Amino acid sequence: MRPFELTTAPTIESAFSADAAFLAGGTTLVDLMKLNVLTPRHVVDINDLPLRGIDTGDGLRFGALERMADIAAHPGVYPAISRALLLSASQQLRNMASIGGNLMQRTRCTYFRDVAMPCNRREPGSGCSAITGVNRMHAILGTSDACVATHASDVAVALVALDAEVVLAGADGTRTVKLTDFYRLPGETPEVEHDLRPGELITEVRVPRLDWAANSTYVKVRDRQSYEFALASAAVALDVRDSRIVDARVAAGGVATVPWRLTAVEEALRGKPVTEESFEQAAALAVEGARPLAHNAFKASLLKRTIVRALLELTEGSRR
């Protein structure tokens, strides 16, 4: 780890600095600093800022410094969000990690984290080692010739499915951005991962009210039962009436460079009967445009099965 200056921000306004890294839980930042993947000269501790609170009165609102474990345990949080949080990391890390930090976490691509290897996200123009390297954990959707790294967050997948927004604050004021627009596809500039401007920070996460989001879930498939990143995951919410799907929200994780909203799958589900056949037909659309690599072609069929599993879980009572 290289030397750096650590300061504490007493107010939100005092935190704004174009060349600073923000420290909340530190569960990602500190790891990457130890590896010299990130080498900020100035780190600002923001834990004293008034960015806490959980409100479930009309939709959901989480202060950016709320810890993942506290949100997961809070009554009124939609099941897809709570379950995504509980399937993330370990209990110890969930107690430390903030919701804002989780949404900002960097990819777990091993080439990104190894400073001896070329990586366009870490060093633009150096190349993407994963494309011809070991790429079993990498993305098949939203990729480019410059980057195939998967997005790591579980809860971001559930939040994207439920139309969440983030509130961003900086020296130029406050703005609100839909989470689907916040994350950027790699294209030719994979080092630009999100819409956060220099000096800005996430202050709040908002999820619009959706009464039928109580019927939601998050299914995560991984190599081991705990403390592992997704090979494929699905966040699904369904409005089911008289054994027919009225509306749906579906997003996928573990398979794409950003949390991947599956609008084609949603459209295919609307108006359909609650049957496994309907689910399989809709899930087949999830992999349109997929670009499998040498070691991760299995993710296409795995994603379809994961979506079907989530749909079956949510409609068990309706199919009896």
Automatic annotation (TrEMBL):
InterPro entries: CO_DH_flav_C (IPR005107), CO_DH_flav_C_dom_sf (IPR036683), Diverse_Substr_Oxidored (IPR051312), FAD-bd_PCMH (IPR016166), FAD-bd_PCMH-like_sf (IPR036318), FAD-bd_PCMH_sub1 (IPR016167), FAD-bd_PCMH_sub2 (IPR016169), Mopterin_DH_FAD-bd (IPR002346). SMART domains: CO_deh_flav_C. It comes from the Bacteria. Pfam families: CO_deh_flav_C (PF03450), FAD_binding_5 (PF00941). Residues 1-212 form the FAD-binding PCMH-type domain. One of its GO terms (molecular function) is oxidoreductase activity. Keywords: Oxidoreductase. Signal peptide: none annotated. This is Xanthine dehydrogenase YagS FAD-binding subunit.
